[in-house]
Write a structure and sequence with these properties.
4 copies of one chain form a homotetramer. The first copy, chain A, has 3 helices and no strands. The first copy, chain A, has 94 residues and is an all-alpha fold. The longest helix of chain A is centred in the middle third of the chain and has 36 residues. Chain A is elongated. Chains A and B meet through α1, α2 and α3 of A and α1, α2 and α3 of B.
C-alpha cells in the first residue's frame, strides 16, 4: 500500500461501488447454495459468474488508471508508473 | 439450475464457507477503498487477491465434484455428466 | 512422461495435427513480423490469436481425454486418473 | 494491421525471435507426439508449456511496447494509443 490517493468522479465511484455491491450479493448467494447442498455444477456456474464480475471491476478500474494516473504520470516524467503498470498487467494476465 | 443436491461432509462445507466469508470481507474492503479514494494500483492488488480467492474456491469445489459426483456418475453409466464437466472446465479455462 | 499410449481415430489425429500445422504457420508469421519491425500492437494481435489456437487444441484434446481415457479408467477402478486430471485442469485454469 | 513500424534493438529482436524458434520446436514436438499416439495427459503437459511460452513472448513484447511506443505516444499527445493499449490488455486478461 502506497497511501497515495486517486480522485475519482462521483459517477466512477458509483459505478465501481455498484459492481462490488452486486458481487457481495453473489458471494452471499454462494454461501446459501453451500448451506443448501446445491449440486456442485450449479454452484460452479454462479462462482464463475462472480469471477467474471471481478474481472469486469478490474477492467473498469484499470481503464480509469491508465487514462488517468498513468497518462498524467508519464506526462509529468514519472517513468516508474509504467513499470508499476506492467507488473500489475502481468499479474492480471495470469 | 438443476434442483439436484450434493451431499457434502461437514468439513467440506466448513472449508468452502470459510473461503466465501473471507472473500466477502475482501469485497467489503474493496468498497471501503473506493470510498476512501485509495490509489488505483493499490485497489487492483486487493481485487486480484479476491480473484485468486474465487479461483481457490472453484478449484476446491471442482475437486469434490470430480472425485464425488463425476466418478459416481460414470460408474453408474451416466455419460452426460462428462459432457457437463467438460463444458464447465472449458469455461474455467477462460 | 509416462510412456503410456492413447489410441486415437484417424479423424481425431487429423483434426489435432491440422490445428498444430496452422499454429506452426502462425508462429512463423510472428517471426517474419519481428524481422520486418512490425508495430508491437499488430504483432500482439497475431500472438493472441496463436494463444487462442493453443487453447483450442487443449480443449479438443482434453475432450478426447475425458470421454476416452478418464471415463474408461474410472469404469476400470483407476481412481488415480481423476487426481491426474484434476491436476491438469488446475494448471489449465491458470 | 496498421502498417506502422516499431524500431527494436538487435538484442530485443534476438530475444523475441529466440522465444519463437523454441516455440516452433515445441509445436513440432507436439505434432510428433500426436503421430506417435502419446498418452493425452503427457501431450497436455507439453501443450501447456507451449501456451506458457506464448505468454512469455506476449509479456516481453508488451513491456517493450509500454516502455517504448506508449510512453513516447503519450508524451507526444497521442491519447488514442492508451485506448488501443487498454483494448489489447483486456484481451490479454482473458
Amino acid at each position: 500500500m502506497t497511501h497515495k490517493l486517486t480522485a475519482r468522479t462521483a459517477a466512477q465511484k458509483k459505478s465501481l461501488t455498484n459492481r462490488l455491491k452486486r458481487l457481495e450479493g453473489q458471494i452471499r448467494g454462494l454461501e446459501k447454495m453451500i448451506e443448501d447442498d446445491v449440486y456442485c455444477n450449479d454452484i460452479l456456474q454462479q462462482s464463475m459468474s462472480a469471477a467474471s464480475a471481478i474481472d469486469g471491476f478490474n477492467q473498469e478500474l484499470l481503464g480509469y488508471h491508465m487514462k488517468g494516473c498513468v497518462t498524467e504520470g508519464i506526462k509529468n516524467g514519472d517513468e516508474e508508473i509504467v513499470d508499476e503498470l506492467l507488473k500489475t498487467v502481468r499479474k492480471l494476465m495470469k
